[in-house]
Amino acid sequence: MFRILLDSSNRLLAVGLGKDHELIDQTMYEAWQRQSESMIPEINHLLEKHHVKKEEIEAIVVSIGPGSYTGVRIALTIAKVMSLALSIPIYAISSLKILKENEEPSICVMNARSSRSYVGVYKGNQTLVKDTIWTNEEVLNYMKEHPSYLVCGDVTHLELETRPYDHLLKTMLDLSYVEKPVENALGLTPVYLKD
What we know:
Layout: E1 2-7, E2 12-19, E3 22-30, H1 35-49, E4 57-63, H2 69-86, E5 90-93, E6 105-113, E7 116-123, E8 126-135, H3 136-145, E9 150-153, H4 168-176
Parallel strand pairs: 1-4, 4-5, 6-9
Antiparallel strand pairs: 1-2, 2-3, 6-7, 7-8
């Protein structure tokens, strides 16, 4: 049985197909403000390419936020429709947590605009700092205080070099086997962190 993986919380469009803890295939590219046009065709392409029938899909895994207001809603809306249409569960995963790297302590960052960042800090499946908003100065200070931690995500707004995060969908798939499915798919709402 297959799992569909969806993320459009930031600048990327990411769609993946997983089976039995393995990432079978993925499509990931920058599609800022174009995710709504491309996500469903990319899902259909992966399903057709691998000859996956709708009844073979066991779950949808989606990033729940924080992130781009519209971007988070795109993937979430598609996930909810598929969940209800196919009567399958949704696994909702933090958009920051999917940026972490394996078991390494990871400071996961996304641009929140207005000189602020979305931040979550993880080590393996343990949350060291719950998803929050910090000023960019606070983020940089935290990085200085924790020099051994990996910095993950898009950090160009901090004038730092961004590490590749092509592992995003694999991490998302792995987390879906650890997290519990959402109890009420219809009532699932995005996570928009506020000050």
